[in-house]
Design goal:
mainly alpha; 471 residues; 80% helix
């Protein structure tokens, strides 16, 4: 299809991707609300059920790095169809699962689809939108990336209140079928296919590297400490795998992922901002529900509804910030957004047993307004500096590190919370009151960690320059 025709149909093409990506990211967090029921249904323990999230993230960590290779080797249309088929099959398998093993299998199949669709969607935006209109398009992607996992627990809480956990998957299926139909009708090939070599060693190193890091941090969050042989060995092997993977790519004539993307300074700043902001998002998304349910003693559904306004406001702000970016660039809006995020986190780190739910709602909204102004504009500006032939590599690295950052942010925040709680109880004695007070202090310290990340991002934002020329 010629470029004019692609431009005319760009909104229809992106609509198919947005629906599919929304469901993929929704599935990343929605099932968390059903863990208590799953433990009962499958007669197992929490550490086993946690593999439904760990396995999902691990699959993303392994496959997303390979998306750059897939996008160069296969057509856009074929990749879209394959990713939707994996997601649909995984959703059906999960919905009908009578056993834990089958449910875990369904989750992994779902994650395979999500690993393909997210970087592919970003590449399509870069290919079919001119540079002065990408902000608005990427704003819609930002809506999906932040809103879908944020609203997942709320919708799942409602479902669990009235139905069984199976319906979390059944309710996703119609939307996936709609996305599949839209894709069959509108999605076209937007980039040239290249005969990139399928390098087995690169795939093995990538799998060991990114998989090891995600696995290591995931189990550290579950264990509540970094100081165990299992965690350190997994992260150490993962880090070594990533180093060897990068060395391999630099020596290959046709690398699976081209490290030349890191020779562009605005891309580097953009990717660092994505890592820091995404770590903050995932940290607060796991800490605030724990605080609302364990400290304020709210029911899961009420806790989910308390965090819903922030997700809804973000949905509108993500789109608005894209238009602001197209008009003014990132130089002012990104630092302002990060300042708002810092103010919100500074307030949230003071929460205790007497804090009003309304206080949480207000500053949660403020935090997401700031994130909307900062995250996707920084990401879009970085990708805009890349030449067209590096788009697959740039989006693959961006999405890979975003997923890894999410796993690290979640694990580190939970670990900080667990260590702080344990230290308080150790010093003051193991009583119910001290355990309660220790839990409050643990949440406060973990939110301080998120505040530090946001402050580092603010410093980085002052080095950002507006990229306005198409490469």
């Amino acid at each position: 299809m010629d470029s004019q025709k692609l431009y005319e149909q760009r909104n229809k093409i992106i609509a198919a991707f947005l629906v599919a990506a929304f469901i993929g990211l929704f599935n990343e967090t929605a099932l968390n609300m059903a863990f208590a029921q799953l433990i009962v249904d499958f007669k197992t323990d929490a550490s086993t059920i946690q593999w439904l999230t760990t396995g999902y993230l691990l699959t993303l960590g392994i496959l997303v790095p390979l998306s750059g290779f897939f996008m160069q080797r296969f057509t856009t249309r074929h990749l879209f169809i394959v990713s939707l088929l994996f997601t649909i099959i995984g959703t059906v398998v999960s919905a009908i699962s009578p056993t834990f093993i089958l449910l875990l299998t369904g989750r992994i199949i779902q994650a395979i689809g999500a690993a393909i669709i997210l970087p592919l969607m970003m590449q399509v935006v870069l290919m079919i939108y001119p540079i002065n209109q990408r902000g608005a398009a990427m704003g819609k992607i930002g809506l999906v990336i932040i809103f879908a996992p944020a609203i997942g627990p709320t919708i799942a809480g409602f479902v669990m209140e009235h139905f069984s956990w199976h319906y979390i998957f059944w309710m996703s299926l119609p939307f996936l079928i709609i996305s599949f139909g839209l894709g069959l009708k509108f999605v076209q090939n937007v980039s040239e296919v290249h005969p990139v070599k399928f390098d087995v060693l690169s795939i093995i190193l990538s799998t060991i590297g990114f998989g090891g890091v995600v696995y290591g941090f995931s189990i550290s969050g579950k264990l509540g400490t970094f100081i165990t042989a299992e965690v350190m060995i997994a992260i150490g092997i993962g880090a070594l795998g990533i180093i060897l993977f990068c060395v391999r790519q630099l020596k290959m004539e046709q690398p699976m992922l081209n490290l030349k993307v890191f020779s562009f300074p605005m891309y580097n700043i953009g990717i660092l901002m994505v890592i820091l902001v995404h770590m903050t998002i995932l940290a607060t998304m796991v800490l605030l529900p724990i605080y609302l349910q364990n400290i304020l003693l709210l029911a899961p559904m009420i806790a989910g509804l308390s965090l819903l306004p922030g997700g809804v406001i973000n949905a509108f702000m993500a789109v608005a910030s894209g238009h602001i970016f197209d008009r003014f660039g990132p130089r002012i809006m990104v630092p302002v957004g990060l300042l708002l995020e810092i103010v919100a986190l500074f307030a949230l780190r003071t929460i205790d047993a007497e804090t009003s739910v309304y206080f949480i709602v207000v500053f949660h909204i403020l935090m997401f307004v700031g994130i909307s102004l900062a995250s996707m504009p920084a990401q879009t500006n970085g990708l805009n500096q890349l030449p067209r032939h590096l788009y697959p590599d740039g989006t693959a690295f961006m999405n890979t590190l975003q997923q890894v950052a999410g796993a690290i942010g979640t694990a580190v925040s939970i670990t900080i919370m667990s260590i702080s709680t344990a230290n308080f109880v150790k010093v003051n004695g193991k009583t119910a009151d001290n355990s309660f007070t220790g839990s409050i202090i643990g949440v406060q310290h973990a939110l301080t960690f998120a505040l530090v990340l946001a402050t580092i991002a603010l410093v980085l934002s002052f080095f950002m320059k507006h990229v306005q020329d198409e490469k």
